[in-house]
Amino acid sequence: MKRRTRNPVMVIVCLVLFGLVAYFSYTILIPNTAKEEQLEGFQKKRLC
User: Fold this and answer.
1) How far apart are CA 10 and CA 5, in angstroms?
2) Rg of the chain in Å (alpha carbons)
3) pLDDT of residue 23
4) Which value, to the nearest 10 degrees, does the dihedral of the CA atoms of residues 6, 20, 41, 34 take?
5) ∠ CA(13), CA(14), CA(18), 5° rounding?
6) Nearest alpha carbon to residue 38 among 13, 18, 46, 19
7) What would you measure as the largest C-alpha separation in the chain, in angstroms?
8) Interior angle at CA 37, CA 18 and CA 25, nearest 5
9) Which residues cross the membrane (predicted)?
10) pLDDT truncated to tens, each residue of the chain (48 aa)?
11) What is the C-alpha separation between 44 and 26, in angstroms, rounded?
């Protein structure tokens, strides 16, 4: 039996899964308080 070490489909699937995990972990690691502070800062800038 020959094993395909580099299967294009598996490589693409792995890259997509890695991207999704990185994206979700990045969004989850950002605290909600920081987002609220940023929104308040933008609102203040708009008012000023």
Assistant:
1) 10
2) 20
3) 87
4) -110
5) 120
6) 46
7) 70
8) 10
9) 9-29
10) 566 677 889 899 999 999 999 888 888 776 555 666 766 777 677 665
11) 26
User: What is the torsion angle, in degrees rounded to the nearest 10, for the CA atoms of residue 7, residue 9, residue 15 and residue 21?
Assistant: -120
**In this structure, what token pair is assigned to residue 16?**
């997509």
Amino acid letter for position 34? A
Q: Which amino acid is at 20?
A: L
Lookup: tokens for 42: 């933008």
pTM greater than 0.85 = no
Q: What is the pLDDT of residue 12?
A: 92
